[in-house]
């Protein structure tokens, strides 16, 4: 099976490359390769009520929080964030972390990450209202 796209979406020091964007899975799932640079600014704790997320670390390590559980995921480890759970990740190490991320269903996909990249790359300080609007449009909410 061929990769659907070679597009790399850069959001600061995080990149997303979608290997499956949902178009060939009838919207059931999307999968991306994510690279998180050391000490990268990462998304704040958030939840998505209608999408499960699974991450598997391939290289490096990610500190991953799901609700009240915090784990350091090494290469080969995975973590499941069921829909509705508050989750967050960071790369506290000295080397880039590379992971596969699966979203099910595929309602969180390349469009969301392109929209976030556009808001954060607009120049000047990020507009929190525009960022919240993008998140809401894609079914994502900041943790309260």
From TrEMBL:
Domain Cupin type-2: 33-103
Matching InterPro entries: Cupin_2, QDO-like, RmlC-like_jellyroll, RmlC_Cupin_sf
Pfam families: Cupin_2 (PF07883)
SUPFAM superfamilies from the UniProt entry: RmlC-like cupins
Protein name: Cupin
Organism: Pseudorhodoferax aquiterrae
Organism placement in taxonomy: Bacteria, Pseudomonadati, Pseudomonadota, Betaproteobacteria, Burkholderiales
